Backbone:
């Protein structure tokens, strides 16, 4: 009952919130279509596993809950709601029209604006979900909006609250060769999550196979994302986050001056220090025009 009411609230948010719209100059269309949700139990052992596979700093739900000063509870009373934000067909079509600037391939302006504006809509959605829980008499916290959220730059780049891993725990999809999460509506999505003591029904994972939605890991086929990446950041050995991040920084250097008037600033902590505002516009060529863009490709 609470799960379905939450989903209704989210559908309304996706349909009616003006933050889910491109600027009028770019047509004013929605950039996210409809929400999917999954719910993990706070004491699911997978959260301890994430300390090994992501990094020891990755919080469990109860650690994130406690560090933010909420009442101490047995961890099995917590729930973690993960939300999938799939891009609309319009944005996906635009994503198939990259711009060539000398040797650098950059995403279309539509896609860059949508990628940038999505941050504000996702944050607003998480706040609305917390408000929903508050009205029901419960608490809620979004890990990525917490003061304790940070990106870490050690030998690799990772955060102490990974939305992809939370979505995996909630049974919404699996990892892949390009490292995106392949959901039932594909990998060309964004993710958000909220920890709550509201007793939502758990949505079980089918299994703990972490790569079972990616064709390459199922039978060695596909590899379309390798071909699509202009930075050679994807190989059969996996995704190189440093090469990927460097390419995205190059894209930003070209794209931000072109679109500055339409972009929204973004603030985040790196290694626990607040960085100057940035204007993320993304890249994601590996997610466009590939078998897993808008579906689970292992399902025929
Ligand atoms: S494009 Fe193919 S190989 Fe790459 S992540 Fe998607 S399914 Fe896997
Ligand atoms: S985001 Fe861009 S640079 Fe990174 S892996 Fe995908 S296509 Fe390559």
Residues:
């Amino acid at each position: 009952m609470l799960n379905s009411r939450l989903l209704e609230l989210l559908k309304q948010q996706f349909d009616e919130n003006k933050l889910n719209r491109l600027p009028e100059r770019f047509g004013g269309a929605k950039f996210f279509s409809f929400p999917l949700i999954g719910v993990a139990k706070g004491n699911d052992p997978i959260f301890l596993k994430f300390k090994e596979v992501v990094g020891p700093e990755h919080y469990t739900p109860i650690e994130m809950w406690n560090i933010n000063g909420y009442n101490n509870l047995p961890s099995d009373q917590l729930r973690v709601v993960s939300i999938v934000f799939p891009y609309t067909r319009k944005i996906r079509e635009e994503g198939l029209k990259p711009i060539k600037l000398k040797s650098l391939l950059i995403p279309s302006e539509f896609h860059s604006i949508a990628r940038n504006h999505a941050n504000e809509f996702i944050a607003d959605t998480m706040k609305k979900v917390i408000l929903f829980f508050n009205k029901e008499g419960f608490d809620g916290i979004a890990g990525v909006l917490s003061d304790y959220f940070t990106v870490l730059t050690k030998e690799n780049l990772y955060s102490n609250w990974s939305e992809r891993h939370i979505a995996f725990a909630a049974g919404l999809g699996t990892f892949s060769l390009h490292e995106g999460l392949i959901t039932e509506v594909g990998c060309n999505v964004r993710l958000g999550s909220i920890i709550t003591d509201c007793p939502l029904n758990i949505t079980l994972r089918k299994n703990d196979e972490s790569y079972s939605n990616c064709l390459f890991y199922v039978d060695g086929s596909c590899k379309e994302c390798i071909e699509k990446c202009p930075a050679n950041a994807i190989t059969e050995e996996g995704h190189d986050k440093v090469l990927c991040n460097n390419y995205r920084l190059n894209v930003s250097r070209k794209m931000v001056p072109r679109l500055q008037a339409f972009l929204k600033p973004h603030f985040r902590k790196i290694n626990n220090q607040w960085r100057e505002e940035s204007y993320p516009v993304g890249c994601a060529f590996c997610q466009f025009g590939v078998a897993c863009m808008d579906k689970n490709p292992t399902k025929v």
In short: Residues 2-299 form one domain. The chain is about 35% helix and 15% strand. The pocket of iron/sulfur cluster (ligand 2) is lined by residues 178, 228-229, 231, 233-234, 239, 244, 247, 283-286 (CB under 6 Å).
